[in-house]
Amino acid sequence: MPLLTSRPSSTLTHISIVGAGAIGQLIFHQLSTAINPLQHRLNIITRASQSCTQQLTLTDLNHRQTTKMAMLVGKDEYAQQLPNTDLLIVCVKAYQVNNALQSLLPHLSPNCHILLLHNGMGPHLTVSAMLAGQSLSLGTTSQGALKQSAWHITQTGNGLTQLGPYSQPSTLPQPLQTMLLTAIPNSQWCSDILTMLWQKLAVNAAINPLTAIEQCQNGQLADKQYQADITTVVAELVSVAKAQHIELELNAVLDRVYQVIALTAQNYSSMHQDVHHQRLTEIDAINGFVVQMAKNHHIATPKNQLFVEQIKLLEQQYSPLIS
Ligand code: KPL
With a 6 A CB cut-off, is 208 part of the ligand 1 pocket? Predict the structure, then answer.
């Protein structure tokens, strides 16, 4: 059932969100509050066979509850709905990006703009090789959201969101860029998004595996006993970034890691939670990506490699299924 019928579909700007996890739903709430319903159509692409409408609830940081109706597009309507999509925002986990896009790309118009928003790095390399004319932007968000139930999320943090073009020059129409920055609080457009993603990768490469291995909150990593591990893992990452022509300053990156440790002291990192709930972790897109890139440049990254092995060992103990 289309949400709007007042304008012909071809004159509307269509925005589709892929992934109905906590971040996908949060972005849906934020966009649906900001868009002009006479000009935009917003929906969520699902892997279900049939399309349906669904009530989505958000409890925000002020404990206010709002409910929105969402059109969930199932596989039966991909061929009809996806060719109209102007902006596809992909909010699935890094390891789900390739599969998700493989089934969607054949239906997308070459004019569609794709935005990848996930933890870690790597999928942009395979996705950019799969594209048939579509242009690509990348992003990272430190917003926090937790699922209370399938369609009710609670916002837990208002961290920074950084978005920027991977395809050069960017073909994301200015009104869509403005709409994204208006809708998502504390967000910015970064012309040098790869540098921002490497900086965020350093934060995740230091905090996520260590908190999962030590089974602790982020704040515990301020303890002196973790200092050598954190410095080594970040120093390895900085040298790999440099080989990729991304200039990071080791001390500045370490300062940022310790700032995040302090600001999120009470949090359990996403990798800690994945291990705790026996889910597949994002290790391949975090420390695994550093190791992978290092191999291309013949750089040794033993600490990142060790973290990958330790997390994979934990995963083997519960054999997670790829969803
Ligand atoms: O992004 C995070 C994560 O848990 O994945 C940090 C910044 C480490 C906050 O927990």
Answer: yes
Q: Is the pLDDT at 158 greater than 90, yes or no?
A: no
Check pLDDT > 80 for residue 1. no
Q: Which two tokens stand for residue 90?
A: 């992909």
- Measured between alpha carbons, how far is 284 from 176 in angstroms, rounded to an integer? 31
- Residue 10 banded pLDDT, cuts 50, 70, 90: low
Q: Which of 68, 75, 93, 200 is catalytic?
A: 200
Task: Report the separation in Å between the CA atom of 99 and the middle of ligand 1, taken as the mean of its atom positions.
Answer: 24
Q: What pTM, to 2 d.p., does this model score? A: 0.93
Strand stretches in the chain, DSSP E? 13-18, 40-45, 52-59, 65-73, 85-90, 113-117, 135-149, 152-165, 187-189
As for the ipTM of the complex, it is: 0.97
CB-based contact 151:57 (threshold 8 Å): yes
Average pLDDT (263-267) is 88
**pLDDT value of position 4:** 41
Residues 6+ apart with CB under 8 A from 36: none
Distance 265 CA to ligand 1 centre (A): 10
Ligand 1 centre to CA of 9 (Å) is 39
Choose which residue among 197, 269, 286 to substitute to test ligand 1 binding: the one with the highest number of ligand atoms within 8 A of its C-beta: 269
**Mean pLDDT, residues 191-197 taken together:** 97
CA–CA gap between residue 253 and residue 13 (Å, rounded): 39
Pocket test for ligand 1, best of 23, 118, 141, 142 (most atoms within 8 A of CB): 142
